[in-house]
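Our consortium's second objective concerns turning raw sequence data into structural hypotheses that experimental partners can test. To show how far this objective has progressed, the report includes one record in full. It was chosen at random from the queue rather than selected for favorable results. The single chain below, 280 residues long, was entered without modification.
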Amino acid sequence: MVEQRIRPAVCADDRWYPATAAELRREVNGYIENAKAFDLSGEVIGLISPHAGYYFSGHVAGAGYRQVRDGAYDLVVLVGPDHTGAAMGGLAIPDYTAWHTPLGDVPVDTALVAELERLVALRRIRHDREHSLEVQLPFLQVALSGFRLLPVMMGGQSLQLCRTLGAAIAQVIRGKRVLLVASTDLSHYYPETVARELDHSTLQYILAFDPEGLCTALMREQAHACGGGPVAAVLFAARDLGAKHARLVKYATSGDVWPDRAQVVGYAAVALIRPQDEVA
């Protein structure tokens, strides 16, 4: 019998997101229901979603998840940045068989973790406090059903690392019904007008489906995103799987919900779309 290892909900603290199931479901449902559903003329196989506390970025994340609600996805590949150093500059996988939130447990596809591990070097970790992956889960639990999880934490954002991870992800999931999710915020703690200019520049690489350009811009500090590496890796994977278009679903800053506009954080939800006639 496989040992069951459940990752606890370390962010269910009423600061990142609500600690009770009823309040969490009500809040996430509200963010999704209040968002517009776009006609995206294809299949959404990827999302870029923010990972701040729900008070600040939940409405942006909800706009992204609105585009995939009730989608027929069997697997979610969730790629987020490492804010705590647990990945030691490389790639890491929290070593659990399921992730817990107040809405229940999300099973990890441990067989695919093993397949991915044969293609790229993964550091298996326990007892992490990383929020970038966890805060996506309640949105996924409300928007989707019956999916398994492949979570990856990135401690670097070099072009080589992003390209290698993207290619490996595409290889292990090809032919499956998969949603790719890159977890990132954009610029941090600039005045509102500056932040919007910086975020516009960063988004241009994403909307042009240009992960190479994004990695170069991140290195030169011409693009700003704490999860820039995860975004690039997901763009590489989505492109390998036939996605050709990126659609900005919503953009905002923390200044849209908080009175301090002298130091804001930028957030965006982007859908990655594969034309219906493309075969993965």
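The partners drew two points from this record. The CA atoms of residues 73 and 177 lie 5 Å apart. The chain has a mean pLDDT of 96. Both points have been shared with the crystallography group to help prioritize constructs.
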